[in-house]
């Protein structure tokens, strides 16, 4: 993401769109002192500026039908704000680039 934002800073005509393809359910996390082991959890991951580590545990298996966020910045980004069906992302990108889908 940072590489895209750096590129956009030098090329202000760049549209950046960020969207997930699905929601994966709940996740819980635990902060722990370095060296602690949390069986059944993923980690450890560094907790920035804290001296602690993060351990993750998924609270649900598989995907859900919950909506996922979409956000955008740059020219035509207003077309990607708020909620939109995933089937509308491609047509909105085509419109933003002044292109038409073959059909």
Biggest β-sheet description? 3 strands, antiparallel
- Arithmetic mean pLDDT: 85
Strand order of the largest sheet: 2-4-3
Provide the gyration radius in Å.
19 Å
Q: Summarize the helix and strand pattern as letters.
A: HEEEEEH
Structural description of this entry:
- This protein is α+β, with helices and mostly antiparallel strands and 103 residues long.
- It has two domains: 1-20 and 68-103, no CATH class; 27-66, no CATH class.
- Helix content is 17%, strand content 24%.
- The protein contains two helices and five strands, in the order H-E-E-E-E-E-H.
- It has a three-stranded antiparallel beta sheet with strand order 2-4-3, with no helix packed on it.
- A hairpin with a 6-residue loop joins strand 3 (42-46) and strand 4 (53-58).
- It starts with a helix and ends in a 7-residue tail after the last helix.
């Amino acid at each position: 993401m940072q590489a895209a934002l750096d590129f956009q800073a030098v090329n202000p005509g760049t549209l950046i769109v960020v969207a997930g393809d699905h929601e994966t359910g709940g996740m819980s996390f635990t902060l722990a002192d370095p060296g602690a082991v949390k069986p059944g959890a993923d980690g450890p991951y560094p907790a920035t500026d804290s001296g602690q580590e993060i351990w993750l545990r998924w609270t649900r298996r598989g995907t859900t039908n919950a909506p996922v966020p979409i956000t955008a910045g740059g020219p035509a980004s207003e077309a990607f704000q708020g909620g939109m069906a995933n089937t509308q992302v491609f047509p909105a990108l085509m419109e933003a680039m002044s292109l038409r889908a073959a059909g």
